[in-house]
Amino acid sequence: MKKFSIAPVYAHCDLPCGVYDPDQARIEAESVHGINQKYDGLNQEDKWRAVMIKEQRLELVKHHLWVIWTDYAKPEHVEATPDLHDLFWRATKQAGQAKKSTDTSDSQKLLDLIAEVSEWFESTK
Amino acid sequence: MKKFSIAPVYAHCDLPCGVYDPDQARIEAESVHGINQKYDGLNQEDKWRAVMIKEQRLELVKHHLWVIWTDYAKPEHVEATPDLHDLFWRATKQAGQAKKSTDTSDSQKLLDLIAEVSEWFESTK
Amino acid sequence: MKKFSIAPVYAHCDLPCGVYDPDQARIEAESVHGINQKYDGLNQEDKWRAVMIKEQRLELVKHHLWVIWTDYAKPEHVEATPDLHDLFWRATKQAGQAKKSTDTSDSQKLLDLIAEVSEWFESTK
Amino acid sequence: MKKFSIAPVYAHCDLPCGVYDPDQARIEAESVHGINQKYDGLNQEDKWRAVMIKEQRLELVKHHLWVIWTDYAKPEHVEATPDLHDLFWRATKQAGQAKKSTDTSDSQKLLDLIAEVSEWFESTK
Amino acid sequence: MKKFSIAPVYAHCDLPCGVYDPDQARIEAESVHGINQKYDGLNQEDKWRAVMIKEQRLELVKHHLWVIWTDYAKPEHVEATPDLHDLFWRATKQAGQAKKSTDTSDSQKLLDLIAEVSEWFESTK
Amino acid sequence: MKKFSIAPVYAHCDLPCGVYDPDQARIEAESVHGINQKYDGLNQEDKWRAVMIKEQRLELVKHHLWVIWTDYAKPEHVEATPDLHDLFWRATKQAGQAKKSTDTSDSQKLLDLIAEVSEWFESTK
Q1: Percent of chain F having pLDDT more than 70?
Q2: Among B64-73, D1-10, F95-104, which is the least confidently predicted range?
Q3: Cross-chain Cβ contact D14/E90 below 8 Å
Q4: How far apart are CA F107 and CA F96, in angstroms?
Q5: For F79-119, how does the pLDDT look when each residue is reduced to its tens digit (9 = 90+)?
Q6: Buried b (16+ CB within 10 A) or exposed e, D29-68
Q7: CA of F47, closest CA in chain E: separation in Å?
Q8: DSSP per residue, F63-116
Q9: Which residue of D has its CA nearest to C53?
Q10: How confident is residue C16, by pLDDT bands cut at 50, 70 and 90?
């Protein structure tokens, strides 16, 4: 396709809308953190619901991070930030880890990694 | 459930995580606006994709706004802001309207209504 | 948009298929009610499943009601029925409330509110 | 599981809520029929949207019919109505066929087959 | 539609891509089987997650099998294999049954039925 | 959970079911390739549907690859295969690229990259 003739494989976006925002991942992760903070005080059935809702939110965290990694990040970004792949890998793995726990330290660690992603993201603007 | 004993019908949240953010609607609407700005320059097949992607994003805009209206807004908010229902109704209707058009004035009108929602939302904090 | 020049903002439907039916919400709510009626007799794992399935069905109830409110209801309806917004708000809030409980009185209250929506809906035909 | 000890394989429902309704399939199919009736008068972009929306609705038609076939229909139903499998097979195939066409005769044929399903369904009550 | 003029109702595929594969159902069912094998050793919250994840995977199993039954299977297949409908019915019913249990014998029975589907599928190539 | 005590952040799976299979990505990509091979011969409306179906299938390709990258790949894999991150990045980017084209060379390139992923995957068994 002509439009991408200079870097045909590394198109920067599935459709060139130009809108990416790590806040999408952060908001979902904050919701998980909020759930974890209240988890011990929930009744039995709300605990089941909390675990289920966390699972969905964390899947969204993973999705939003994967999209930035695959669709927004370009070869020049990876060149400039050699551990970029590893940052996204650790962040999405931590989202998976947070599914297995209701510990606020796990959701906090996830928020910290998303903050690192945001910092990098802002540096590319 | 004790927590809701005073106003059992108007529970403020489906699970008390306390995280709501009109930015979720705004980010999706900005993506639609970005698509509209580039629409005329797209090739035929990307136009089809643009219409399809807009449809999905605008459905998300509606969903995020509905959630704030139904789950976050409480009776005291409605008392304090009598046209609150109408604001959300016009905003979600405008999201539907924006599905039918690739005109930036339609996506801009949507962004303006989401900004009104955000302003109200901030005022409740 | 010219096409809707008589009622430009308040197009009555995202695509003019003309098909809306509160029965979609009612059927999902009846399923939740049926689950609540059998809940106490379920074994442990089916209780977890019941809570999860209720959550999904009630999300569908909310969705179907929101669609009627945003897409079907027109300004003349709101003028004729001033508490229309409030009816939909209470009905969708009750769907959220029913997620937090396996009490048949909560699912019955939801069915009653959907019946009110249906009655209004029929009156507009 | 005791509850299903007599016919362990042919459990009549994934969770015993007891609520099934062919109207769910019918409402989606009517929406497709409504779209087909208006299709020729739509502008270019709404035609794309119509094809996309039809696709989703018809997938829902298939899903709702499959659920009744697999979850509601019991061995005694199949014994009593030997061509029951074939009826559901033709109905779901017709839903697939209706994706490929915007001809009202295709959506009408689908509605007719769903009416046959409904008639059988009512006969089992 | 001309393209399907010889067998207008029994189009073999919703879009003629020609790709079907019972391995999609098998992989999801193996995941359920793997969960069942480890179920007793999981902690309480991972048990809830296991039940929820099983539910989703088994819904995918049903979907993949239904697609092969409705979209791939053609009238000549049914003529050649008179119990084809029944095989798919038992297989999808067993997927529903496996939602209600964490017993490896239930997931094994499902895998066996999917193996029968695969055997038939291969025989049609 | 004992299993993760040595490398708590790098859990190898969101739930220890142990089932991963690059064939899930391959089957979806083959479907896209099949569509591209027939694309020029489709009528206008089936072309729209083809573009829409390709979009969904390619999103599934991305998802299945991301899951293997984030959930299955472990630190020892990355150590042993230093360009592993880059392989998954190029493969998921190519899936995005294939959304923008109906050229069989784009879907073939995607299939080739998935074959590389499979080869690596098999080497870890």
Answers
A1: 88
A2: D1-10
A3: no
A4: 10
A5: 999 999 999 999 999 999 999 999 999 999 999 999 999 99
A6: bbbbbbbbeebeebeebbbbbbbbbbbebbbbbbbbbbbb
A7: 10
A8: HHHHHIIIII--HHHHHH-TTHHHHHHHHHHHHHHHHT---HHHHHHHHHHHHH
A9: D15
A10: low
Q: How confident is the model at residue D14 (pLDDT cuts 50, 70, 90)?
A: low
Which residues of B lie closer than 8 Å to D, measured between beta carbons? Answer: 48, 51-52, 55, 99-100, 102
Per-residue pLDDT band for C32 (boundaries 50, 70, 90) equals: very high
pLDDT tens per residue across span B39-68: 999 999 999 999 999 999 999 999 999 999
Q: In this complex, does chain D touch chain A, defined as having at least 3 beta-carbon pairs under 8 Å apart? A: no
State which amino acid sits at residue F91: A
Q: How far is F3 from chain E (nearest CA, A)?
A: 11
Which positions ≥6 away from D45 have C-beta within 8 Å? B51, B100, B102
Residue of D44, D45, D54, D55 to mutate for B, most B C-beta atoms under 10 A: D45
> Do residues A36 and A102 touch, judged by C-beta distance below 8 A?
yes
List the helix and strand counts (H, then E) for chain C.
5, 0
Chain D residues closer than 8 Å to F47 by CB: none
Q: C18 by DSSP, 3-state: which?
A: coil
Structure ipTM: 0.88
Instruction: Tell me what pLDDT residue A50 has.
Output: 96
Walk along chain E (125 residues) in steps of 10 and give the mean pLDDT of each run.
Answer: 27 66 97 96 95 96 97 97 97 97 98 98 95
| CA distances for B90 relative to B111, C4, C69, E68, angstroms | 12, 16, 11, 44
- Assign residue C42 a region (left: φ > 0; alpha: ψ between -120 and 50; beta: otherwise): beta
Per-residue pLDDT, B92 = 98
Residue of A nearest to B45 (CA): A15
- Asked if pLDDT for residue A82 goes beyond 80, the answer is yes
Q: Which domains does chain C have, with CATH numbers?
A: 19-123 (1.20.120.400)
pLDDT for residue C58 is more than 50: yes
CB pairs under 8 A between E and F: 49
Mutation target among E46, E49, E55 for the A interface, most CBs of A within 10 A: E49
Q: Which residue, D89, D102, D90, is CA-closest to D34?
A: D102
**Closest-CA distance of chain C to residue E115, Å:** 27
Residue with token string 């497709």? D32
What is the DSSP code (8-state) at residue E2? Answer: G
Residue A97 to chain E, least CA–CA distance (Å)? 12
- At residue E63, the pLDDT reads 97
Rounded distance between C-alpha atoms, residue C104 and residue C107, angstroms: 5
Asked if A68 contacts A20 with a C-beta cutoff of 8 angstroms, the reply is yes
Q: Which of D35, D48, D56 to mutate to test the interface with B (most CBs of B within 10 A)?
A: D48
